[in-house]
Write a structure and sequence with these properties.
The chain is of the alpha/beta class and 313 residues long. The protein has 2 domains: 271 residues, 3-Layer(aba) Sandwich (Rossmann fold); 31 residues, no CATH class. The chain is built from 10 helices and 12 strands. Strands 1, 2, 3, 4, 5, 6, 7, 8, 9, 10, 11 and 12 form a 12-stranded mixed β-sheet that branches. Strand 4, helix 4 and strand 5 form a beta-alpha-beta unit. The chain is globular.
Length: 313
């Protein structure tokens, strides 16, 4: 089944050209089916690229997904046309009285800032607290994962001596978890960040479990034991050329940057990158939608229980 997005969203034409099944509003209206309601809080400055990447993965499942795009009201987006935000995005106050089956909180290129110094931090805290009682399962990405772990579980982030940048091997540490069904013992995923979370801090929190880890990139997937929060420290959603774009950008600005690990053939930036994480990305999102959202969410989203009253997943 497709992801349902507005007819005017730029991602629609891109995804249709890639043969990703998307559905317009008119056709969806005539289908007698209750789609999953998924909100995406897009914190990235390149909002159109990020929304397209995530919609591509949501559209590759067997479930119909109705997407609501959100941006922060307390931060002015400088890299996205104001008309695009006005036509396709909502702010929290406009949806706070709704309930959603799923929520995705993206990363943001601000990981070296203290959380409390981020101008929209109070708004993000408000959204994360609201999600506990109004969203069945929340999927946190990269800086969003660090922010969620810090706010909900007081887990700190640490500066890295150099940017963790490239495509890395990860081990499946929890093959019996529903999220990891179908995963290989070892799989690949991209990372692009200046900070990290550490296993020792997570192991102090009994409500959390590490699902996947990389010898080079560290902790990758962490889940709450009730299934309502998943924290992904990498960028499985990245396009084939996203890491190249970041590398070329930093080179052009004269910034210190290493060639992305395990990305270009023979580590040669003049060659076209090899995509070796696409199957993992599709399986990750499909498993989240199926097992952590569709299989457990009430038919009526208004019946989503408060976190304190929900049975263990």
């Amino acid at each position: 089944m497709p992801v349902k997005i507005p007819n005017t969203l730029p991602a629609r034409a891109i995804l249709e050209a890639e043969n990703v099944f998307v559905m317009g509003e008119d056709r969806a209206f005539h289908q007698d089916i209750r789609p999953l309601q998924v909100a995406i809080l897009n914190l990235m400055p390149t909002k159109i690229s990020t929304e397209t990447q995530i919609l591509r993965l949501l559209g590759n499942s067997a479930l119909q997904v109705d997407v609501t795009l959100l941006h922060t009201a307390t931060h002015e987006a400088r890299n996205t046309d104001a008309e695009h935000l006005l036509n396709h995005y909502y702010v929290f106050d406009e949806i706070r009285h709704q309930k959603f089956d799923g929520l995705i909180i993206t990363g943001a290129p601000i990981e070296q800032m203290k959380f409390e110094d981020v101008d929209y931090w109070p708004e993000l805290v408000q959204i994360m607290d609201w999600a506990e009682d109004n969203v069945e399962s929340t999927f946190f990405i990269c800086w969003g994962a660090q922010a969620g772990l810090y706010h909900h579980y007081n887990i700190p982030k640490y500066d890295l001596p150099a940017k963790k940048f490239g495509v890395f091997e990860h081990r499946n540490l929890a093959p019996k978890e529903k999220l990891m069904r179908g995963f290989d013992d070892v799989f690949l995923a991209p990372h692009s960040r200046h900070t990290e979370i550490r296993r020792a801090d997570i192991e102090k929190v009994p409500e959390l479990k590490i699902f996947s880890e990389s010898a080079e990139a560290g902790v990758y997937i962490v889940g709450s034991r009730d299934g309502r929060q998943l924290f992904i420290t990498g960028h499985s959603e990245y396009d084939p050329l996203t890491l190249k774009g970041e590398y070329d950008r930093d080179i052009s600005k004269g910034l210190p940057i290493n060639i992305p690990n395990n990305y270009f053939p023979n580590n040669d930036p003049t060659k076209f990158p090899e995509v070796r994480w696409r199957s993992h990305a599709n399986l990750l999102y499909a498993n989240w939608l199926n097992y952590y959202v569709y299989q457990v969410t009430p038919y009526d989203p208004l019946q989503i229980p408060e976190r304190a009253t929900r049975d263990d997943f």
